[in-house]
Amino acid sequence: MGSRRTYEVTPSAARLTRSLRDVGYDFPAAVADLVDNSVSAGANHIQVIVEFDGADSRVLIADDGTGMSENALVEALRFGSRRSYRENDLGRYGLGLKTASLSQGRSVTVVTRRAASADRVFVRELDLDLVEERDEWLVVAPRQTPETDRARDLLGNAPGTVVLWRSLDRVLPEKRPDGGWARRRLDSYARRTADHLAVVFHRFLERLPDGRHVTISVNGEKVQPWNPFAPGEEHRRELPAQQFEVTTGDRTGVARLQRFVLPTRPQFSSQEEFDRLSGPLNWNRQQGLYVYRADRLVQWGGWAGIRGIDEHTKLARASLDFDTSLDPAFNINVSKMRVSVPPQLRQLITASINELCLAANVAYRRSSSHGNLPLHLGARQSSSASSADLALAGLALKSAAMQAGHYEALESILAIVRRDAPSIASALDPAV
Known about the structure:
By secondary structure, the chain is of the alpha+beta class. 38% of the residues lie in helices and 19% in strands.
């Protein structure tokens, strides 16, 4: 086969960087992407600082991780960096540092030190104004400014990295960036960021199984983890955990499913805890699958197309874990905020999710109908039992049959009841 003529087509730096600013980050998600880098660098302490100073407002993300060499720093500021990722690194595409930072401002400066014994600190900057002016992919060693001095101070004398965002054109209003409304907006972003980090990194904030523990602060206040599964609540119910094999190309990985029914309001340890566990989206929209990639929460809320959100199943929450080897199967996006549950896995977990929702439905209806008292079925129950009791009994039977592995047998029995005693069947099975 003869050789073909080839052409090198270098994209316009100005136009491409402009486009990459709109890959889907909001402010909290952009900060979270940089926290990913800090976690991957082995940081134990991460500071997020949002400082209002009118048009000169800035954001700093500082960590005590391993830091970078000069070459590694320049490579980190390359779009689509050539670095290789270790298994279960939180990075993915080699775009996060740049796209997350520039989605909020026009300038990102990185200050880093590799070793405590080395006095040398490396500082490099990616500035959109310069890129657009030259239409070239340029990284520069910036002039010393009070802001870069501030970043150096945060670095101290230890290894670590500080990322500085300036020219926050996507954060501050174009008109009156020094006004009261601009200040309130930046304060609001800081609060939302703390809430977002509390959810996304709750496992790191609590302590991972390997003993690793990370602390994160936003404007000096320590972020407290928000665990959606209420591990400290006595009346939380956990269904058996399950594992499923997922194949993508020539690789096979394992996805892990854990299922929980949270307590009803009267069963919670306090009203404050019930309100706190309702979460940022409130109870109905917080039900569903919580998808984790390498222990980092990526997506939550809803049932990934398996079923719809329902008031009666609002106590049901499930975690779905996968490691980075399954990234292609889950089709994770650049901002690490969305995944697609693979069709083969969705089919495998459907019965398990329906079982969980049946259990949550039973708990909800039991609380509503009986004030959280046990459901009594037996000889002493009146023959004139309410339709609510019968409906609850039907749900309990379906849940028990699923857990025992005899759901198909129960469906066959109910089919006969529907044929021979349709009124009883209708009372037993009105909503499932």
